[in-house]
Structure formats: structure tokens, C-alpha cells
Give the backbone structure.
Amino acid sequence: MDAVSPLPRLAGLRRTYEGLPLLEADLAPDPLTQFLAWFDEAVAAGLPEPNAMVVATSSAGGRPTARTVLLKDCSPEGFVFYTNYESRKGRDLRENPQASLLFPWHPIRRQVRVEGRVVRLSREQSAAYFNSRPYPSRIGAWASRQSAVVGSREDLDRRYEELTRRWPEEPPVPDFWGGFRVIPAEVEFWQGQLARMHDRLRYRLSGSEWIVERLAP
């Protein structure tokens, strides 16, 4: 007997989106201020991990990949996250320093999308954040050669235990680990609405000014 295709079940999965209208007149003059206002509302709504974002990168050859990481700072200069520089995203950003971020705040029927170029943080900035992390996370940064193939879970755990014995108190900052800043050129705010007639307002940087444009849903 042929396997039952999951597509009919998927086709029937739908929700009605309804939210307050997102109007141009309601937007802050710059995307950072607007983002922080929406972020505060996501926190107030009790969303789990409201700073979780999908980071999409591409290799020099155009092969895309995406993963979820945590936003760790946000300022007029851009959006900051930390990672192993030798991970796949680290290698991608070395070859092609452009990224897209997506904050999927589904429970409040909102999304924020960011596109821009990416720069490394200074060694001093990365060290300051690394030294503020809990001890287990600092050891974990050393123990995991992110994206590399490992023989087993036991090998990974053994490496972690070896490093806790090597540095029982203060592990140094790895030279292969640090921060990236995404400097936005576009920031889109998406608000779900009825009949899939969603509101999409995009800030686009033109010279030194932000232009606001409405996009069709």
C-alpha cells in the first residue's frame, strides 16, 4: 500500500491572523526604535526566548544555510550575536559578509526581518561578553568546535570534562570565538491580518536616511 502523503494534512493547517493595523503614521522614525518597542511587547507577552532569531548566511558559492541564535545586543550600530568563527556561519560570513535575520514572534502574529552587511566585533568587545557568561558556557565554547564532525557524544563530554580540569576557574577567551554585528540596510516589520492581507512596512536605508515603504503581503 502506498504511503499516505502528508500534504493533505499540511494543506489543512491554517490559522486566522488578526492584529492591530500597522500604519506608516504609527512607526518610529528609525527601525531600531521601532524594533525595541516591538521587542518590549514580545517580552511583555511572555514569549519564550524573544531574542531568538534565525540567521541566514550564504557561502561565496551561493549555498544558503540558516540556524537559530540569540540576539545579545542591539544599538544604532546594529544587531549583535556571538559564535565560533570556524562554524559554518562563521566561514560563510568570512567569505560573504552579508546576513539576514528573522525574529519569528508567532504568538503575537508578528515578524521582524533584517538584512545587512556583517562585521566582526573587536577582540575587546568579544572578550567583555565572553567573561560575563556563566562558567559552563565558557567551557562549552572551548569544548565544541562548532559544526565540526564529532565521533560520539561521549567524545564531546570527555572534552568538556578535560577542560574543566584544565581551567577550574577562569578559562581564557578562545581566539576562534567572538561576536558579529549585522549593520542593517533594510528592516521589515510584519503584522498578521485577516484574509492574509498582512501589513508589511519596510525601512530601507537611502544614503543616511531611512525610507519607509509598504509591501504587498
About this structure: The longest helix spans residues 31-44. The helical segments are 7-11, 31-44, 88-95, 123-130, 135-143, 153-166.
